[in-house]
Amino acid sequence: MTEEIFRDDAYAQSCTANVLEADERGVILDRTVFYSEGGGQPGDTGTITTADGSSVRVVGTYKDRDGRGILHVLAEGENPLTAGTEVTAEIDWDRRYKHMRMHSCLHLLCSLVDGGVTGGSISVEKSRLDFDLEDVTLDKEDLTAGLNRLVEENHCLSASWINDEEMEAQQDLVRTMSVKPPTGTGKVRLMHVEGIDLQPCGGTHVKASGEIGQVRVSKIENKGKHNRRVNIVLTE
Fold first, then answer.
1. Complete domains list, the chain, with CATH
2. From CA 72, how far away is CA 37, in angstroms rounded?
3. Pair 69, 1: CB distance under 8 Å
4. pLDDT digits (tens, 9 = 90+) for 38-90
5. What's the predicted TM-score (pTM) here?
6. Measuring CA to CA, which residue among 7, 12, 14, 16 is closest to residue 38?
7. Which of 25, 130, 143, 161 could bond to 217 as cystine, CB 3.0-4.6 Å?
């Protein structure tokens, strides 16, 4: 299995690693700073560099379907790596950091909308959450003001872990209706926004809400009788 450095240190931009496996699907390393796609957050992109200075481009990162670790998908035409090779893995930091800011902002949004989350996605350009709401009108300007107030208050974000049994006993923490927290490994990661939000989450986040910067609710859409989609963008 791949050691997931990003779980404990979302700010780590590179690491040394050894190639465990490499084939036409991609590369599996023994440790990585690359976040693997999940929870609405895209997998990281970046480079893997060998000792002689040659690099290959990583265009996507996923959990290997056979459960062997994290698969780093290489750009078409890149030369394959060899198992046992020592490498340096480095992410596209600007892209990742925007994902971190966006993901943390979506947790702030959860604290302002009283409804179950039915879906969501994160990207550099915009991000969204879908809420299960009935007979509720959401106002773009009110939500924008609320988000920026929470940003300016600079709430700390931190992670902790609980075991599967504790998670089962605290289902009220789960906001997502369509995706349940992963269990079976013995522990589940909780993300805390101090005094604001607490829910299971495996994504990467900033250390304090002030890092998010100014944001704007760009659009609120009706996507069904009960489904309201709230889109956000970073404005700085």
1. 3-91 (2.40.30.130), 96-234 (3.30.980.10)
2. 11
3. yes
4. 989 999 999 999 999 999 999 999 998 777 899 999 999 988 899 999 999 99
5. 0.93
6. 7
7. 143
